[in-house]
Structure formats: structure tokens, C-alpha cells
Amino acid sequence: MYYGQGEMMYSWAVRMLEARCAVLLEQDKECVAIPTSSEQMRSNSSLHRTAMLDLFRDNVERLVLEHSSPSSLNRNFLHEDAINVFISADFFAAIHLPNRQGMRGRVISAGDAFSGTLSINKKSIKAERARTITSSADIDWWTRSAANKPYTEVHFAPAWRIYDVVLDASDNEKLEIDSPLPWHTGPFELKKIDTLTGEIVTDETAKEGVIAFGAFTAIARAGGAYAMMNNAWPVNFGEDTGPNNYGTRTQPVVIASESANVIYNSSKIFEGTAGKQDFDTKWLVRRVAPITIVDGGNITIHGHFGDAEAARAGRSNKQRRSFIPVDTALYYDIDFRKTTVSSSSNMYLRTAAIFSRKQGYNQLGWSHENSFSARHQGSVSHEGSRSTKVKYSAGAKLNVSLLAEFRGTIYSTGWDATPYTLFAGIAPTALYFTRD
Asked: Would you say which domain of life the source belongs to (predicted)?
């Protein structure tokens, strides 16, 4: 603030001295040389003002990005107030720097996700040289073979890259980005803005203090759960991919569930299965394309999980079973009693998100196994989230799948039936990578 006041005081003083010198020179009198002319002072002041506003802009962008959610399922991972903050910062710069007026935009990217060329109204526009905005953590950015395909290659970058775009636009000209970017703010146009109120100029608005201003924001970086999950899961019962039996192409849900009774069937006494039932139920859905870890390192696999039972009820139009907790990964209730006919039953349940490679696999999963001679009831919570850290070499290929299964043997309680309910389900709301 004091630096700016000093510039204004010097600018005023030098203009007074230059005027005084002009009079003295006409009188053939000497004039003390001024260290910096008013013209040079204006140039210096403009450079200083530009540098300060650029620093302000960069810090605003850094603050917004640090408070955004780049690992989210939303292709627009920016903070909910980000666009208004960007517009306010750009308008502030436009008031103080004439070369920041007009139609301008920013493209947020990372690594080489953006080529630097944008198509707007079918016209190719070259962005200015990228600016680097440091990040407190590595940023994942993904690529794919075509715009209608799932993302398959994950890279990591230490900083954001922001591209400024300057357009020649006419007042109220309707403009829109044509490039297949993950997200942008939609149609935009150049407006006349009152610098005192920040409002669009109307017939009643004073004509002084008016500038032409327009702004847009676009995101060229795809990453986080959006890149991992968007349109990446089959919904059919294909032999190769398996069933995504209660979810969508972006929000997969896989469930193995059964509720019935094991009864004593005397007609099968000679088969040895008169009073027992064997279980081997397994559902598996695979991501439609493998993932290549282009940039290796210590990578953490994160998962956030939702209510799989609610998905089952919603898909099958049946009421949600309230006795299954909302955070359930596994649920079991087997009302078995030890008798002279059978002394115990056993059951194994498991659900997991599996990341497999040639060297083996890692998982975010839950399992339960027990042999029991009395009623066996309980649940295993997914607790909302889970993570695991893995060291991947550059170029590692991962096949991602979701699994729900149970297997074991339940006997009837003597000649009485054994009621049972078995449930294994996984409903990831977000799966994503971070790197140390």
C-alpha cells in the first residue's frame, strides 16, 4: 500500500518539476535534472501494477485450487465459489489494467493434458504460454485413446498449468467452447460493465467508468474418481466383464445376496444332502479397460463407499431392508442350532475393489469367515472409506474389478429349517489414486 502511495506522490511531484523546468528553460535558466521522467514513471508504474496484479491472480488461483477437490467424481472439481472468485479477480485486474479488459478466459490443466489450442465457435484459438501454479500434492491427470472412451493412462504432475486465452469478440456475441474438454462454464459473451457497480450497463447507466469485460473458465485436466470411474463399467451380464448388477456405467454396484431357508429333505437322505445346502455365489465386474500407471512411485489407492443395500432395493423396486446397516459391506444372519444331525455350519463372505497386476493384486476389501454351532449374526462395516499404499513401477498395468461373494455350508437345525440371510455388497462412490 505504501509503495503505491509513494509512486503516486513521485508522479505528482515529477509532473510539477517538469512543468517548472519547462518555464525555466524558456527563460534560458538552468533546471535540475529529474532522475526519472513522468513518462518513464508511468511506464514503471504500469509494470509494477501488472506484476502486483499478476501475483494477486496467481495467489487467488492457488488458493482456489488448494480448496478444490481434484480427486472427486465431479468433472468440475473446483470449489463451489471458484467461478465467482475468478470473475471477481479478473474484473479487478481489468479495472486497473486496460490490457486485461475484453474477453478473456483461463484453461486449468496439468502435465500435457492440454495442447494449448482451444476451439471456440469452430475457430481455433491459441492460448498464451502456460503459467505454473504450485500444488501442495502431486496432481493425477489421465489420458485416453478417444473422446468417447474411458480414461486409461494416469500420469502425475507437481503443479497446475493455467493457460490464459484472449479473444477478439464483439459486444453480446454468443461464444462457446467446441473442444471436447471435461468441463467448461458454458456459453459466454462480452458485456459492457459499470466499474463502480460491477453491473451490466443499461440505458439508464452512466456512460463514464464503463469497460468491456467477459470471462470464462475451462478444465482440460481429467483426474481423480471422475477419470477412474466415468463410463468405465459394464452394465450387462457379459461373460468377459461380469455383471454390474445394481449400478450404472459410472456408479457400479456389485451385490451377492440371498435370503431363504435350509430345510431337511428326507428324499435326499441317501445323497448325503438331506439337511444341508452348499453355497458358492460370486459376482465380479471388471472395469472395461485396464489402467496404465505411466508415472510410477508410492501411490495410494483410495475408495469411498456408499449404501449397497439401498442400491439393491432401488434397482429391484423392493423396500430397503432396515436391519442391514447403511454402512454394510457384509451382513449375515444364520439361525442355525447344533443338533445330533449336524454339529456346525460354516460361511465365508467377502467384498472388495481389486487392483490386479502381473505381480499379484492389492485390494480395498472386507471379509468374514467362521464356523459356528449356534445362531451366527452380525455385519462388517465399510466405514465409509478405505485406502492402501502400493509402490508401482512406471508402466505398470492394472485390471480393476469389484467382487462380492459368499461360500460355505449351512445345515438344517435337525428336522427344522434354518433361516438365513447373506449379503455381500460394494458400492464405490469414488475410487482414485494419489502419489506421495
From this structure: Bacteria
Look at strands 210-219 and 237-238 and give their pairing: unpaired
Q: Is the per-residue pLDDT at 202 higher than 80?
A: no
Residue 92 grid cell:
479487478
Helix (H) or strand (E) holding 352: strand 345-357
Within 10 angstroms of residue 168's Cβ, the number of other Cβ atoms is 9
Per-residue pLDDT tens over the stretch 379-408: 999 999 999 999 999 999 999 999 999 999
CB neighbour list of residue 3: distance below 8 Å, 6 or more residues apart: 48
Amino acid at 168: D
CB 258 within 8 A of CB 286: no
Q: What is the DSSP string of 227-287?
A: HHHTT-S--SEETTTEE-TT--SSS--EEEEEEEEE---GGGGGGT-TTEEEEEEEEEEE-
Q: Whole-prediction pTM value?
A: 0.86
**Secondary-structure percent of the chain, ordered helix, strand, coil, rounded to 5:** 20, 40, 35
DSSP one-letter code for 200:
B
Q: How far apart are CA 91 and CA 100, in angstroms?
A: 8
- C-alpha 413: how far from its chain's center? 51
- Integer distance in angstroms from the first to the last C-alpha of the chain? 39
